[in-house]
Amino acid sequence: MLSKMLYAKLSSIFVLLLMCCVPQAVVTAKRHRGSKWWLIHRGVVNAGAPSNNVLVNAKGDPVFLDARQQPFNRRQRRLVRKNAGSLVAIAKGTQRAINECKHQFKERRWNCPTYDGDHGKATFGNILRKGCRETAFIYAITSAGVGHTIARACSEGSIQTCTCDYSKRGPSGRDWEWGGCSGNVQFGYKFSRRFVDAAEKGKDIRYKMNLHNNNAGRLHVNTEMRQECKCHGMSGSCTVKTCWMRLPSFREVGTLLKDRFDGASRVTIGNRGNSNRAPRGKLKFEMETYNKNHKPPTRRDLVYIDNSPDFCAVDPTSGSEGTLGRQCNATSIGVDGCDLMCCGRGYRSEEREVVERCSCTFHWCCQVKCEICRSKKMVHTCL
Ligand SMILES: *[C@@H]1O[C@H](CO)[C@@H](O)[C@H](O)[C@H]1NC(C)=O
């Protein structure tokens, strides 16, 4: 009798244990705060510090005024130490990614707000708790930012372990040859993969999502390389041309990733391979489209697992700032239009005086003189 009761009790404890310990692949209970290394964009402030404006200690690791803010983990620090000059590039790349995110989303309800705080989520806020489209974009653009800036830094000679890509050399076509400095995207891509992906750990689908989007982001730098040529010969007759591969501008990368954001695929844990014993360290599941009729995402597509909040009202827990007070366009029917931007709450219109420089003229040499013009413009803001 007693043993039976004990057995019942034990088995209920066992069930409880089972319930709380289902693998993370099934339940994503972990709090996601984003990547701590994003904090490095704040490092580029201290002019006069030894290494191009970023505070570093004797080992070359980034130093923050608040010592608890170590933005890099051990693998990342080792990588940065081995590639002298990369720290500044990472910091610049992260700042460029943040600026690009704000630019691409300036006319949307979620306009890529960033924050000052001391956790990983401090950079982009609580939106990172969810694996939604916005989160996918953040991972992709920051990973692309590192790859792009590192590749450029190689060409500028500011990283000791890389140069321009000189693998393309010599005559190639009938009337042109490779020459000059080709952007070293191979190095940028590999560096970004090692540095950015080193921040991700876990076994859940969110981890897979982050890695996929990191890779999708930096791939766009590689695929947008373009050939550029210069003519040589008598008075520009172009008898000989030398060509090299030019990096895309970061604006081009941002615009393409914004298109990927709009066409992102919702994914979920697939069944394929679930029952198989996976090799150690490998994840046992594959990502699968949420809607089985949809095409599977390519390597360059962004993927997400959660639907986005509507961003209409202020909700600090989901990283929504709401759209109260946002400017909108009264004649647009798009996402920047007042109907969508203000979520149907309506908007206030007022005439504001705008002060601009105008009728600028160029005076030899070298001055531009402008007049100050005042005009009235209608400004619409969400209620
Ligand atoms: C508002 O939207 C219309 C239609 O899309 C566009 O032509 C106009 O330039 C926009 N105005 C502003 C101030 O952006």
Automatic annotation (TrEMBL):
Query: What subcellular compartments does it reside in?
Result: Secreted, Extracellular space, Extracellular matrix
Q: Which domain of life is it from?
A: Eukaryota
Q: Which UniProt keywords apply?
A: Developmental protein, Disulfide bond, Extracellular matrix, Lipoprotein, Secreted, Signal, Wnt signaling pathway
Q: Does the keyword Signal apply?
A: yes
Primary residence? secreted
One GO MF term attached to the UniProt entry:
frizzled binding
Query: Which Gene Ontology BP terms does the record give?
Result: canonical Wnt signaling pathway; cell fate commitment; cell morphogenesis; neuron differentiation
Q: Which GO terms describe its cellular component?
A: extracellular space
Q: Which residues form the signal peptide?
A: 1-29
Main function:
Ligand for members of the frizzled family of seven transmembrane receptors.
User: Into which family does the record put it?
Assistant: Belongs to the Wnt family.
Name under which the protein is recorded = Protein Wnt
